[in-house]
From TrEMBL:
It holds the Pfam family oligo_HPY. GO terms for molecular function: ATP binding; ATP hydrolysis activity. PANTHER family: D,D-DIPEPTIDE TRANSPORT ATP-BINDING PROTEIN DDPF-RELATED, TRANSPORT ATP-BINDING PROTEIN. Belongs to the ABC transporter superfamily. GO terms for biological process: peptide transport; transmembrane transport. Transmembrane segments: none annotated. This is Oligopeptide/dipeptide ABC transporter, ATPase subunit. The keyword ATP-binding applies. Residues 9-249 form the ABC transporter domain. It comes from Natranaerobius thermophilus (strain ATCC BAA-1301 / DSM 18059 / JW/NM-WN-LF). Keywords: ATP-binding, Nucleotide-binding, Transport.
Length: 315
C-alpha cells in the first residue's frame, strides 16, 4: 500500500544528497492467496525493487505491506524469521544464487537444519531427495555441485531451495529470463504444477509480457516506478486500456509470416528515474499524450471491478 523506494543520489565534495532515484514511486496492489500476480515492465521500472522490499531485503522509503494481516515491515527477529520461511524468493540467475562450493545436499541441508526442518543427516538426505523429485531431478543429483548442472537444472535447484522450507508464497524475480525459450516453458510448467500441488501464491516478475501471460492470473504493468495498469490476464490481453500496455502488446511479434503491418513499438528510451517526467511519467513516450499529461499526475482509476488504469483518459 503506497509503497515507495527512493534511493538517494550523493554528489559534490561533501557527498550530500543531491537527488533521488524514484525506483518505486507509490504503488498499491494485492495478491490473492493461491494466485499468481505478474509484474511486468522494462528493466529499471522497479519490479525487482518491489520484490526485494516485500522480501525485507530492502527497506522501503514509505508504504505498508500486509501478509496474513500482519505488517511485514514491522517484523523483528522471531516474526521475521518465520516470515522468511513462509515467503521465499527465486532469482534470475540461478548460478549466482547457488553456493559454488556446496553440493546440493550440503546447501539444502544447511537451510533445513537452520530452520529446524531436519534434525540429522538421515532426515536431510530423505528430504533433499524428496525436493529433487518435486522439481524433476533425482537422488542422482544430490552430491553434485552447481557448475555440473545446466541452466535449467540450476533453476530447478533454485526452486527446490525455495520449496525446502514449505513456503506459502514465492517471489519469482525473472526466473526464466536467462534461459533458452524451450527451457523457459519447462520451468514455467514446473512452477504451475508446484503451485497447484502445494497451493502456493506467486509474485512473478518478468520483462516479457508473453512470459507472464502463461503463468499469471492477474498482471500489473510497471513503468518508471509506477503501476500503469492492473487487471486479470484475460482482461489485459483482450481489453488493454493504458497506452503503455497497448504499445507493449503491439510489440509482441506475431507468429503470422504474412503479417505485413509494421507494429508500433514505444518510441524513445525510458527516461531516468532520477529525473522522471512531470505529470504522467509516460507522457514523453505516449502516443495519446495531451496537454494535461505533462502537468498533472493521473490517479489510479478503477475502471471496473479488478481493472485499474493510471491515465487521464480514464478519469
Ligand atoms: Fe498517455 Fe496522458 Fe494517459 Fe499518461 S495520462 S498514459 S501521457 S494519455
Ligand atoms: Mg530486475
Amino acid at each position: 500500500k503506497n509503497l515507495k523506494k527512493h534511493f538517494p543520489i550523493k554528489g559534490g565534495i561533501l557527498s550530500r544528497t543531491i537527488g533521488h532515484v524514484k525506483a518505486v514511486d507509490d504503488i498499491s496492489f494485492n495478491i490473492k492467496k493461491g494466485e499468481t500476480l505478474g509484474l511486468v515492465g522494462e528493466s529499471g521500472c522497479g519490479k525487482s525493487t518491489t520484490g526485494k522490499m516485500l522480501m525485507r531485503l530492502l527497506e522501503p522509503t514509505a508504504g505498508e505491506a500486509y501478509f496474513e494481516d500482519q505488517d511485514v515491515f514491522k517484523f523483528k527477529r522471531k516474526n521475521l524469521k518465520n516470515y522468511r520461511r513462509k515467503v521465499q524468493m527465486i532469482f534470475q540467475d540461478p548460478f549466482s544464487s547457488l553456493q559454488p562450493r556446496a553440493t546440493v545436499e550440503d546447501m539444502l541441508g544447511e537451510i533445513l537444519k537452520y530452520h529446524g526442518m531436519a534434525k540429522d543427516s538421515t532426515e536431510v538426505r530423505s528430504r533433499v531427495i524428496e525436493l529433487m523429485e518435486m522439481v524433476g531431478l533425482s537422488s542422482y543429483h544430490i552430491g553434485r555441485y552447481p557448475h555440473e548442472f545446466s541452466g535449467g537444472q540450476r533453476q530447478r535447484i533454485g526452486i527446490a531451495r525455495a520449496l525446502s522450507l514449505e513456503p506459502e508464497m514465492i517471489i519469482c524475480d525473472e526466473p526464466v529470463s536467462a534461459l533458452d525459450v524451450s527451457i523457459q516453458s519447462q520451468i514455467i510448467n514446473l512452477l504451475k504444477r508446484l503451485q497447484q500441488e502445494l497451493e502456493l501464491t506467486y509474485l512473478f516478475i518478468a520483462h516479457d509480457l508473453s512470459v507472464v501471460q502463461h503463468i499469471s492470473d492477474r498482471v500489473g504493468v510497471m513503468y518508471l516506478g509506477k503501476i500503469m495498469e492492473l487487471t486479470s490476464v484475460d482482461e489485459l490481453f483482450d481489453n488493454p486500456l493504458h497506452p503503455y500496455t497497448r504499445s507493449l502488446l503491439e510489440a509482441i511479434p506475431t507468429p503470422d509470416p504474412d503479417a505485413t503491418t509494421v507494429r508500433a513499438v514505444v518510441k524513445g528510451d525510458v527516461p531516468s528515474a532520477s529525473n522522471p517526467p512531470s505529470g504522467c511519467v509516460f507522457h514523453t513516450r505516449c502516443p495519446e499524450s495531451h496537454e494535461r499529461c505533462s502537468q498533472q499526475k493521473p490517479s489510479f482509476n478503477k475502471v471496473k471491478a479488478d481493472h485499474y488504469v493510471y491515465c487521464h483518459l480514464y478519469e
